[in-house]
Design brief:
The chain has about 525 residues and is α+β, with helices and mostly antiparallel strands. About 40% of the residues lie in helices and about 20% in strands. The protein has a 6-stranded antiparallel β-sheet, with helices on both faces. It has a 4-stranded mixed β-sheet with strand order 6-1-8-11, with no helix packed on it. The chain starts with about 25 loop residues before the first helix and ends with a helix.
């Protein structure tokens, strides 16, 4: 008998615009449940292409020998400036396809969780994409702050007994480099299907949709402006025509989309990730509801081997958050662990990132103010650097103190200044159209995002947009507000981290944020 999965775990509306219309799961929930839980329907279902977009995370790095840092550098071949950063490709499915991926992801997760629960050490070691209850704050679950705190506490306790080493590993472009055949075998193993047997047809259909997907570029739906010649906005006229028909999508019907493909008005892409040596397609799309579960089951055998060797045999400590891993062991096991992890990552058909592989030594020292405490030392090839922190899950651990990762703070300030620049630009345009009005910025939203610690002082209401038919027979936007909801921003996250870590210095890291905010307003409003 097929296991029943509660609809509340997978039947959820999505807000983004796609190739097909949005779904009203609250109104037609029973219909979607009866279809998506029907294996025969999934076997016959034709998955639509995904929508592809890129989130670009800028990074400030040294650009010359003087130590100057920038988020841009000059390309020596073209002579043009290029952004420095990490592009993160995202692919997301139509609303019906997303529900199927979500349902089958939950099916796999339940089977995967049951296997993890057979070994407590294994279950404790895998912390990403799982709901792990917080015993101190039921019914809430643990987050990255809890996981980082537990790891740092374990390092401290071990170091007070003897010198301890910590090895940090990272898989290079994890989602983009997943081997399809290896994933298929892991999928079968989670469902307890023998090697010589096939996946059930419905599961295999989902597997093929994840591994041999096609996609269209979100940028292809944008129009170029006459002034900049660059694509900056969607075709609002076409979107309005769809909206009048009650459709919140780029096309009124699936047929219209197929006609666009036949007429070559829009391009269809396939296989964005390929093995650099064999040129064989690899990787799965980030952004699907099933992607996180597949990432975990892909490393299921790897995790078992690491836990058996590190935890059971060497009495060490292992934690994996997606592709970010740390191992804590005695000093004499440093080389053994490095060789073992390198070998097993390679056996999993993925590549270890040498650039992000780091080794640390933690030992007791006498601090002039704190007395006996512990301190971090980074182990390099030819030397050991003192007071270099171990970074894990957005935190820097020095041994005697824990701080928010400096790169995350820089990202917060970049977003703050960017938001101020945009508001200032709008304010100047408004002032040009209304010369009698004073020049000012609408600061309420900026204050809520970048200056207020206690968001209980302001009411936060979520607005839902939906289409309603008017008296002329056309559909138009209308909004519905729900009740007050708990609000949060990066400042509340930092405050919570400071409290849970019992580390006042974390909150002090943002002590200058109001001054920086005001300086940005003065600078860009008067520029």
């Amino acid at each position: 008998m097929k296991k029943r999965i509660a609809p509340s775990l997978w039947l959820k509306s999505k807000g983004y615009r796609h190739l097909t219309n949005k779904l009203n799961v609250s109104k037609h929930g029973r219909f979607f449940i009866s279809r998506i839980t029907n294996e025969d329907y999934v076997k016959r279902h034709s998955f639509f292409p995904l929508l592809h977009s890129v989130i670009y995370e800028p990074r400030y790095k040294k650009i010359d020998f003087s130590g100057n840092r920038s988020h841009k550098k000059v390309n020596k071949k073209t002579g043009r400036y290029e952004r420095i950063g990490k592009p993160r490709p995202l692919h997301y499915a139509t609303h019906v396809d997303s529900l199927i991926f979500s349902y089958y992801g939950q099916l796999l997760y339940e089977e995967y969780k049951n296997k993890l629960d057979l070994d407590k050490n294994l279950s404790d070691s895998i912390i990403a994409y799982r709901k792990i209850p917080d015993p101190d704050n039921p019914p809430k679950n643990k987050g990255t702050i809890h996981f980082a705190k537990e790891a740092f506490l374990e390092i401290s306790q071990r170091t007070y007994q003897e010198e301890t080493v910590v090895l940090k590993f990272d898989i290079q472009s994890f989602f983009n480099s997943i081997n399809h055949d290896f994933l298929l075998n892991q999928w079968k193993k989670i469902l307890e299907i023998k090697d010589d047997e096939k996946l059930p047809e419905d599961h295999y259909k989902v597997y093929k949709a994840v591994t041999t997907f096609s996609y269209v570029q979100l940028e292809d739906f944008k129009l170029a402006t006459d002034r900049t010649k660059s694509k900056v906005s969607f075709d609002e006229k076409k979107l309005a025509e769809c909206r009048k028909k009650g459709v919140l999508a780029f096309f009124q019907t699936p047929k219209e989309f197929r006609d666009y493909l036949k007429a070559k008005k829009i391009r269809l892409y396939r296989y964005p990730f390929r093995d650099k040596i064999t040129n064989i397609p690899i990787g799965i799309p980030q952004g699907l509801p099933i992607s996180s579960v597949l990432a975990n089951i892909y490393l299921y055998d790897f995790d078992i081997k690491v836990v058996d060797y590190v935890v059971h045999k060497l009495k060490g400590y292992y934690r994996r958050y997606s592709d970010d891993m740390i191992v804590v062991v005695k000093k004499e096991y440093l080389d053994d662990i490095y060789n073992f992890m390198t070998k097993e990552i390679k056996n999993s058909k993925v590549i270890m990132s040498e650039e992000k592989t780091e080794k640390f030594l933690f030992k007791k020292v006498n601090h002039p103010k704190l007395g006996e405490t512990i301190k971090s030392f980074q182990i390099l090839e030819t030397t050991v650097k003192e007071n270099i922190p171990l970074t894990f899950l957005g935190f820097e651990f020095y041994g005697y103190q824990t701080l928010i990762k400096s790169g995350n703070l820089a990202k917060f300030y970049r977003r703050m200044i960017s938001a101020v620049k945009i508001k200032s630009k709008h304010a100047k345009k408004f002032a040009e159209r209304n010369p009698d009005e004073p020049l000012f910025i609408r600061k309420r939203q900026l204050y809520k995002l970048y200056t207020q610690y206690d968001l209980r002082k302001t009411k936060s209401r979520r607005r839902y947009a939906f289409l309603r038919e008017n008296e002329r027979g056309y559909f138009e936007y209308t909004h519905k507000k729900n009740k007050d909801i708990p609000s949060s921003n990066y400042l509340t996250y930092v405050t919570r981290a400071s409290m849970l870590m019992n580390e006042p210095k974390i909150k002090n890291q943002l002590r200058n944020h109001i001054r920086i905010f005001k300086e940005a307003v003065r600078k860009h409003l008067n520029k």
